Structures are given as structure tokens and as C-alpha cells.
Amino acid sequence: MKRVEEIWGTMIGVDVRDDVAPAVIDDVFAWFARVDELFRTWRDDSEIVRLAAGTLAIADSSTETRTVLDLCRRLSSATGGAFDVAAGALLPPPHPPGWCALDPSAVVKGWALDRAGDRLAAAGAERFCINAGGDVLVGRGPGGEDDGDVWRIGIQHPEIRGQVAAVVAVTDAGVATSGRYERGNHVVDPRTGLPATGLASVTVIASTLANADGYSTAVLALGRDGLDWLGAHTEIDAMAVTDDAQVFTTPGFDRYRTG
User: Fold this and answer.
1) DSSP string of the chain, one letter each residue
2) How far is CA 177 from CA 64, 97, 121, 132, 205, in A?
3) Is the dihedral of CA 16, 72, 135, 211 positive or negative?
4) Which domains does the chain have, with CATH numbers?
5) Are 143 and 127 in contact (CB under 8 A)?
6) Do 88 and 99 meet the contact criterion of CB atoms below 8 Å apart?
7) 27-34, long-range: CB within 8 Å, 24+ apart, which pairs?
8) How many CB atoms lie within 10 A of CB 253?
9) Among residues 47, 8, 15, which one has the least CA distance to residue 152?
10) What is the pTM of this model?
11) Predicted confidence pLDDT, tens digits, the chain (259 residues)
């Protein structure tokens, strides 16, 4: 069963290779709509915008919002502050459309897809792929003669639209790419308060898409210093493309590459 809808300003595709009731897919997309209501920075009535504006107290926010902000705090600690949901507040005005002084968008998508994967698994689905604008969560492989037990995921080339920088084969994992090719210099280096430079894109493979999202954003924010950070964290599998088109991969990342 396959379904694609536009939510969060991007296309979300759900591809399930096991037999599940249509109501299960309906529930997944209803969940995505709920996440949009809570976290979309383009909505004046979303909880995250109201929290940033001071019109909603954290104690009065939803369980989902408090859970995400706690996850963001843990990612900030794990990355030495490189992941910072308040970094955008350091940018001087004028601010671009969709700007929010408290912006967990870099991890919300991954977290939401992780929870959608939990819903599919609870319904008996093991072979699935959820793709939200290039951030991908997969379960067991789709099966079949060509694919076997892995999903093959293309990683967007940061400079050439329509081409991939690499193809990875993964199962039961999240693949997230943070780059400056979609929204420009939207990631802020919290050390300087300025837009991040030095890296054009960073892709991370992790057991959860939320962690892959958070780590890829943190490394992009650090720029070339992020390569040193990756080198010291051998448990993270990643590929980074620099502004001058050099490619850096961790030793663990190479075992996933098929092209």
C-alpha cells in the first residue's frame, strides 16, 4: 500500500509492503496532521510559535511538545551545544518567513516519522518506508528479487538537482540529510550566531530518524569543525560534502554505500 500527501510544506510518502488495513494509513497521516498543528512555525496558532511568543507556558503545552523539547535538550547535551533550537533567535531581523525564535524543526520530522513507524509496527507492518522530503525511515527490506532485505535510498546531491551524491542500502534505520540547498543558510552556528558555512550537506544514518536528524543538523552547524566532531564519534555513520565539493565519510558509513 502506497500513499503520498503534502504536509509540513513537503511531500510525505508511506510505502507499506505488508498487508495492513487502510485505517492504519489513515491514522499515520492523521498523526502527521497533529504534528503540523503543534510544531509548524508557519502557523501562528501552533504550540511552538505560542511558546516562543510567551503566550503559552510549557506546563500548559501538550505531552508531545514537552517530549520533543526534552529530546532537543538531550541532543544539545550530546552535541556539546551544536544542536540548539534557540540558535535562530541569534539572527538579527528581518527574519525570513517561517522563522521562529524556538525552532525544533530539525528534529520534529524525524521524531514524527519514528512515531509513525511505531504505529505501523503495532499494526503488524514490518516492511515499510516513510519518506518526508528526503528524510527516510525504513523497517525491514521490501523483499523481492531485486531489493532483498534492504531499502536503497538516494542521497540528494547538494549542487546538482535531480542527481544523487550516493546511494545507501539500509534496513531498520533512519537516514537524514541536512543541507543548505533547500532553504539556503537556515542553519545557525550557535557559537557565532551566524548562518553555518563550510559544509553543503551532511547525511547521517542512525537507529532512529530523530537522532539522524539532530546529528546531521549539529554537524552542519559546526561547518568544517563538524568533520573533527564526527571523527571523534565513531558510533555515528555519516557523509559530509564540503562547500568546495570534497566528500568526507566515516568508516561506518561506507558499509552502507552501494553507489
Assistant:
1) -EEEEEETTEEEEEEE-S---HHHHHHHHHHHHHHHHHH-TT-TTSHHHHHHHTSS-GGGS-HHHHHHHHHHHHHHHHTTTSS-TTGGGGSPSSPPTT--SS--HHHHHHHHHHHHHHHHHHTT--SEEEEETTEEEE-S---STTTTT-EEEEEEPSSSTT-EEEEEEESSEEEEEEESTTTSS--EETTTTEE--SEEEEEEEESSHHHHHHHHHHHHHHTTHHHHHHHT-TT-EEEEEETTS-EEE-TTGGGGB--
2) 24, 22, 24, 11, 9
3) negative
4) 2-256 (3.10.520.10)
5) yes
6) yes
7) 27/119, 28/116, 28/119, 28/120, 28/130, 29/3, 29/5, 31/112, 31/115, 31/116, 31/119, 32/5, 32/7, 32/8, 32/112, 32/116, 33/7, 34/64
8) 20
9) 15
10) 0.93
11) 899 999 988 999 999 999 999 999 999 999 999 999 999 999 999 999 999 999 999 999 999 999 999 999 999 999 999 999 998 888 888 888 888 999 999 999 999 999 999 999 999 999 999 999 989 999 998 876 566 789 999 998 888 777 899 999 999 999 999 987 665 557 888 888 888 899 999 999 999 999 999 999 999 999 999 999 998 988 899 999 999 999 999 999 999 998 6
